Amino acid sequence: MMVSGIRPGVIPQAVPAALRTAVLLWEVMVMVVLVAYATGHGSTRGIAVRIADRLRQRSVDARACAVADVLEVSSYEAVVLGSAIHGGKWLPEARQFAVRNAAPLRERPVWLFSVSTLGDEESMFPPRVANRLRGLRKETPEMTQMCRLLHPREHRNFAGAITRSHWPAIGRAFFRVTGGRYGDHRNWPAIDAWADLIASQLDVKSGL
Ligand SMILES: Cc1cc2nc3c(=O)[nH]c(=O)nc-3n(C[C@H](O)[C@H](O)[C@H](O)COP(=O)(O)O)c2cc1C
After folding, report:
1. I need a labelling partner for 143 at 20 to 30 A (CA). Which of 9, 109, 154, 162 fits?
2. Could you tell me if residue 13 is inside a domain?
3. To which H or E segment does residue 35 belong?
């Protein structure tokens, strides 16, 4: 990785040895992680920004960026890719991003997350309904394909946020029947814990 345009092999000889060592250490220490996301109404963006913030607190340089704004992934050591679920699927721009960048993504550690009504731990439903829905939930064909394509280390589900006006009629009807609750259901401790896990799996030593 480059640090301010300096490569270890081309640090000028005039640079003091201590500074050369510091630059080399910096090279080893700093990982740049891309947290790419696709969002419809903003709750997935909030989760991506939180993951990037948390990684930075763990000495991992991380940037949250909408998939549409990512030019290339080759300059990142690792990628966390997440999308809102609308109509049972990732948003099209997230799928297209994954397909377009499949080759470089396969060459680096990748983590995936989906944001919907039903997280792995929290949900927009009463606990009994949520447990039943989790029991019925299978990995979608899309996610199976994504895993085949990208070889992610893990795929996590997080609950997001919903307002009545965002839901299509079918969603409102489903909420009525199942006792779903509108509002922000993002589980920040679980999101932070996942970011901590990612940081611990990256080859980063913190504490300098
Ligand atoms: C148009 C629309 C379709 C949705 N479809 C689903 C769905 O199929 N399954 C689900 O669990 N949640 C669904 N949701 C809920 C969203 O996944 C949830 O609100 C999520 O937090 C949205 O993320 P965003 O704010 O980044 O768009 C839908 C929401 C909207 C607005």
Report:
1. 162
2. no
3. strand 32-38
Q: For residue 86, report the distance from its CA to the centre of ligand 1, in Å.
A: 5
Q: Residue 92 is part of which domain span? A: 30-201
Cβ–Cβ < 8 Å for 116, 147: no
Query: Could you tell me if residue 72 is inside a domain?
Result: yes
Are 100 and 149 a contacting pair, CB within 8 Å? no
Instruction: Map residue 79 onto helix, strand or coil.
Output: strand
The model's pLDDT over 84-132, given as tens digits with 9 standing for 90+, comes to 999 999 999 999 999 999 999 999 999 999 999 999 999 999 999 999 9
Best CA proximity match to 26, nearest among 57, 4, 10: 4
The alpha carbon dihedral of 107, 110, 116, 120 has a sign of positive
Global pTM? 0.86
The reply to whether 6 falls in a domain is: no
Nearest CA to ligand 1 atom 14: 86
What type of residue is 23? Answer: V
Q: Residue 20 burial (CB < 10 Å; 0-12/13-18/19+)? A: middle
Q: Is 161 among the domain residues?
A: yes
Total number of domains in the chain: 1
Q: Whose CA is nearest to atom 19 of ligand 1?
A: 162
**Single-letter code of the amino acid located at 128:** R
Q: What is the CATH number of the domain that holds 180?
A: 3.40.50.360
